[in-house]
Amino acid sequence: MTKARKKYRSWFSSEDWKWIQRRFPVVCVDVLPIRFSGRARNSVEAVGLILRETPHQGRRWCLVGGRLLYGESLSNAVRRQIRETLGPRAHPVLKRGQQPLYVAQYSPSGKKPFALDPRQHAVGLTYVVEIKGVPQASGEAIRYEWFNLDLLPSPKQFGFDQGRIVRVCVKLFQG
Question: Can you give the pTM of this predicted structure?
């Protein structure tokens, strides 16, 4: 755990954090790792997903991600989430000033336009990021795997309704 994470995590007791989650939207960064086929920069060969324990569905495939810490820039949050979840040998290729490709909305109800997160109302700023190096599951990730686009897990195998978010992001990214 980074110093910044320790510092900000200790801000709230568990009770206070649950109180906040029930009353305020939480800003998160989500990352869809991608790998390109050959030299074509818009031809996505595979996407990376983590297998993790969800609070409501058991083990499911998910995006890399988590909340934005107070005082943390979005790009630093993306780098931190990748480092904490995919280890120090995973190297994100972030463009200067890169913006989220998609904004996902989560709520305990999961009713459209929201995806389901039983814990909180959250806004997920979803980044599509090329990952070089060797990602290795760490932190909340039980496993990390690259999936060819035609072999993605079924919608029921995704946590937090993120299968639909993955498909939208791939479509938007490839234009």
Answer: 0.89
